[in-house]
Structure formats: structure tokens, C-alpha cells
Amino acid sequence: MPKSMSKSTPKATPKAAVKSKSQRRAPSNRNSEVEEPTIAKPMERVIAIVYDGMLILALLFLVGTVLTVIGTLLTMQTGTDSAQAQALPTWYQNFIMTPSFILTLVGFYGMFWRRGGQTLGMQTWRLKTVNNAGHLLTWGQSFKRILAACLMPLLCGIIGSLIGGSRAVLLTSVFFGFIFNYVFCLFNRRGLAVQDMLSNTITLKIPKVEHEGLWSGFKNRKKQQK
């Protein structure tokens, strides 16, 4: 073979081979669709709340039991049978027990939202609550969101008490207000709930590939703080 022909045919280097392979694979990467977080649907939010509600009820029952025992020992004389049982003073129920229940609720959601954006129920359905900037909530934002979620049930409860006055009507009105928060998503153009709009937060549906476990979120939060 002549020397001129051997010089005119350059040898393929490893780098060129890698480059050519990456160029051949590039179109397939462009065509692949990347799933992005979307706004959570109302039914998924309600189911997640039902999951969390079981744990919340257990916590409230524990707090209520402890406060009842303390209140009985401090404010009343204990009897020897059920006939001597008395109700706790109204001031103790209104100024001690009720704020304690509210703080328990705020502490439950605030702890999970601040650390990973997810409660246990939300983790099951791959839901995550963040602010409008995409960051995890602060204590203030968590408290504001909880108050916003309680606004409609409170207003409906007040209306129900004025109309009927019975306990059944009151509970039905409060439940209607709770459901209204999520029915509102169906009429909102972006699919936001009432508490989303009032607190400038949002609940997202996280893709399965990008979904981060609850405890992993806790660890990543600690690393970011360091």
C-alpha cells in the first residue's frame, strides 16, 4: 500500500469513539420525557389527611389524658367513685387544654413540614408541601397554613351553631367547611386549595423517581443547616 494512502486515513482515538457514541445516544435522551412535580389532586390530599388523622387523634388523646389528670389533681378534690366525678373548670378547659391541643396540631405538621415537607400520610402518596419559592416551610409559614386550613371549618361551624345549635348540626357544618377547602381545588384554575392561596404555599405530587423518603429529607435538611 502506498505511503500517501496510509497517511490519509487517520486512526480513531478512544476519545473520538466515546464522543461518537454520546452523539448517537443524544437523540434518545432528548426524546425521553422527564416527569415533573404537579399540583396534588384533592382526593389524594384528603386520603393523606385521613392517614395522618389516626396519629393526630392518638396524640390528642394522650395530651388530653395527661392534662385531665393534672387538672383534676390541681383544681378538684378526687372522689372514690364515679358519682363524685366532676367536670374540669371552664377556665382550665379554655385556657389550658384548648391551646395545648392547638400547639400539638401545629407541632405535628410544623415538625414534618420543616424537615422534609411531608407527613407520614403525605409520604405514602408522594405529596410534599412547600412555599411558592419551592423551599420547605418555616414555623411561621406552617402556623399560617394551619390557620388558613381551619378558617372555613370555623366559619361554617359558627354559621351552623347560629342556625341549628345542636351538636350534630355543628359537626356537620365543620365537616362541610373542611370539605370545601378541597372542593375549591376543582374550581380554581391552578388546582389550589383555600389554605394554599391564603398561606402562599402549595402541595405537590412528587414523581416516583425523584421521591425522597421522609427520613432522607430529615438528613438532607440537617446537612443543609450545617
How does this model look, in words?
The chain has 226 residues and is mainly alpha-helical. The chain has one domain (38-208). 68% of the residues lie in helices and 5% in strands. The chain contains nine helices and three strands. It has helices at residues 3-8, 14-31, 42-75, 90-115, 120-124, 139-163, 167-187, 194-199, 214-225; strands spanning 38-39, 127-131, 201-205. The chain has a three-stranded antiparallel beta sheet. Helix 3 (42-75) packs across helix 4 and helix 6 packs across helix 7 (167-187). The longest helix has 34 residues, at 42-75. It is globular, with a radius of gyration of 28 Å.
Which descriptors would you attach to this protein?
3 strands, 226 residues, 3-stranded antiparallel β-sheet, disordered N terminus, mainly alpha, globular
How would you briefly describe this protein structure?
With 226 residues, the chain is mainly alpha-helical. Helices cover 68% and strands 5% of the residues. Helix 3 (42-75) runs antiparallel to helix 7 and helix 4 packs across helix 6.
Figure out the total of helices: 9
Strand content: 5-15%
- Number of self-contained structural domains: 1
Strand arrangement in the largest pleated sheet: 1-3-2
Q: What is the end-to-end distance?
A: 68 Å
Mean pLDDT: 81
> How is the main sheet built?
3 strands, antiparallel
SSE class: mainly alpha
- Given the C-alpha coordinates, what overall shape results? globular
Topology pattern, helix = H, strand = E: HHEHHHEHHHEH
**Radius of gyration over all CA atoms, rounded:** 28 Å
User: Percent helix among the residues?
Assistant: 55-70%
